[in-house]
Records
---
Amino acid sequence: MEAAVEDVRLHKSPYKTAAKKFNVPRITLKYKVEGKHPIDRKMGPPAVLSRTEEKTIVDWIFEMARAGFPVTMKEVVFSVQRLLTELKRPNPFKDNCPGKSWMKGFMKRNPGISVRMSQNLTRSRAVISKEQILNWFKEVDTFLDHTQQKYVLQDPRRIFNTDETAFFLIRRVVVLAQKGDKTVYQQVNPDEKECLTVLITGSASGAIHPPTILFKYKIIPQEIAQNFLPEWGLGKTDSGWMTCEAFFEFIADIFHPWLKKESIPLPVILFVDGHASHLSLQVSQFCEKNGIILIALYPNATHLLQPMDVAVFRTLKEHWKKRVHEWRISNLEAPILKKKDFPKLLKEVIDTTLNATIFENGFRKYGLFPWHPEIVTVPLNNEHLHN
């Protein structure tokens, strides 16, 4: 339409000729040339989001890519859904969740965004080289230089790593039985068949953030809420695994208040893996506003860069299995570990297993503090690689 208007005004083309040339309605073209209708007037129903709001999403997509968090369409949809819910804005979407047609229109309105297939690193292909690790450190340096926040790397109190792992309520163990018995059964309660997701967070100075436990419920049962540790984080999701919303609640309602309570100077750096469950526009906006710098670890290299993955989880889970076995032996009259008992038992294991030195050594070993890219050791074969 703009080209047709320009053709009429500058080149004196007849309305009929210009309309046919640029495939636009002749009467509409006439009204726009005469100023009766604005040239940039949009046809069809009004957009759900304003241009400013869409630009905010576009800028977020680009900024996340620079920080190592490639944004998926699912994460954009979730972010828009949460935004519309917060704004309480009327819209044609079911449960405020935009569909494929909105996403298609969003991409069309913002041609600077292109769809790319992310590179999934499998066990057979994920041969992480020293060069890739060094490049990741350089990218983090560049990112922090760009935001003028590189000084944060000098203070161990302000460098954090968080990651989630699964704890089973029961594990098969080696037991003693009468000679000749072919099968030995272990009593299992439905509770025990599940695993619980636990988010562990710590700093390079050795500070241990109270864990957050995710339960697979829509509403937390009263017996769990009543027996839960007041200083720990309590979350729920439909799957029991981490989601965008659960991670936002962890950042906004648990991690940030703890930083303020412990008088940790802001900003802080929080190293996380680049999994989609950590990402949403709301998380990014909250972190930017409240001095939390999210940095994604190099994909499929958490075993080389993440203190939680080896230094903490491996030790913690070894002691957890032993403690659960001891608990069952000492509770033979009712040897069923229920979900409501899980937090207190896990706290016993954490209190007797984890200490500041473990966290300090983990950050040091993986070059995160002191910031030392060359110290990271990369295996020469795939035997040490895992997803």
Note: The chain has three domains: 1-34, 51-109, 130-375.
---
Amino acid sequence: MESAKNLNLTRSIGVSNFNIIQMQRLWDNSEIKPAVLQIEVNPTITQNELIDWCREHGVIVMAYSPFGAILGRKQDGPPPRADHPILTNLADKYNKSVPQILLRYLLDRRLVAIPRSTNKERIKQNIDIMDFTLTAEEIEILSSFSKNYRLRTPAKWYSHPYFPFEKKNLTDAEIQYIIEHSKED
């Protein structure tokens, strides 16, 4: 990546799904430092320690899966859901939708939110979040939902020695099952 940057083939270098150990190793062993780290961030996985590291080192954090399991797309995720009173009360207070509250939560944490949608109306709603801000207390309340729950775990890399996420004690057969079924994602 540094060669591509030196040849002016890219303006900057970004990485995704790195943990603090990997970021520090990259930082210590690179001439050109990464400008961006793309990670999953939402109220159920706040990633405070990693985000603090990035801020200390001037790395911008892009937050993917900004809604987590809150909108109910994955039923085994921890609470809250979109109908949680805290979320609906905030939505009512600001005359916004719950997804808009979740996106604003990320912006007010100084993160770059990257929601995914192909629905024209939802894309418009996702952009319509610049006319309000959450209070520090509201951000803290939303952050209290954190359970370190990942909506997306790139299981195809599960057996890699530098797999960036927490590993459960799984048998080889269970790991193989995860890898095979992650191809469906």
Note: Helices lie at 2-6, 20-28, 48-57, 85-94, 98-108, 120-127, 136-143, 172-182.
---
Amino acid sequence: MLPPEARTPTAPNKALHNVKGGGGDHPSVSQDMAFLQNRSISLVDMYIDNSEPTEDVGQIHFSLEYDFQNTTLILRIIQGKDLPAKDLSGTSDPYVRVTLLPDKKHRLETKIKRRTLNPRWNETFYFEGFPIQKLQSRVLHLHVFDYDRFSRDDSIGEIFLPLCQVDLSEKPSFWKALKPPAKDKCGELLTSLCYHPSNSILTLTLLKARNLKAKDINGKSDPYVKVWLQFGDKRIEKRKTAIFKCTLNPVFNDTFSFTVPWEKIRECSLDVMVMDFDNIGRNELIGRILLAGKNGSGASETKHWQDMITKPRQTIVQWHRLKPE
């Protein structure tokens, strides 16, 4: 069940569309209007981006309105235009995921429009219980996906709109160029591996990370690392580092030891996930690597494991580029 702050009504609420400002406004509405004229954008500078998209992935048309009397933000997702084809049929099955950052937990979605590159959604979303002051620190995130029945939905493009940039009293309507999501810019992780055949101890040291992807509205993340020892697809043992607040370059210096018999060392792997801790919603993956002798997440990860085996009792240190999935 959706929280009271965000819901998609099954039928439009006519009363919300008929709220009008004017001389008869409640005093609190006038105060809100004054605040609107003196808004600050310092909290959301990281989302202010006037650059052109690196590639054309289409546009999205939407409008915003604010019901001052009922402190409700009204978002209407109207249509998309010139979206790229993601399916073999030469079309896409697009839908829009809506969030009001920094809250990542409560996500709303439009209906899926089948086999079209120019979808018309015409759907209205209501965010209730949002005083205008509260909206100044919110960023509207619209992310267009292509629905896929048999695999992960493909990202088409997204836009971020800091609401402190918007004069909601004007009931603005927007055409925004979608920007392709950042690819393979999750950051890097420095690790070391060592294996002692005599006592069957596999040691992983997580030294530090650099240039991690920012996941929070302040342009930072709260990273920690979660590690699973796996045999085949079966997870056996989990370890976690401490959480490091407000940094993209944490120094972990944390060591984990696992008991792995020599005859099993080529069959096991370490799934290493750098996570962003979130007080409000779910912890979010920043990036991961799979350290393994076979089928590692990349050539670097496989070589690191093989070097550990061929050079027992030696500590092998290597940087790895984090993968988004």
Note: Residues 229 and 270 are 5 Å apart (CA to CA).
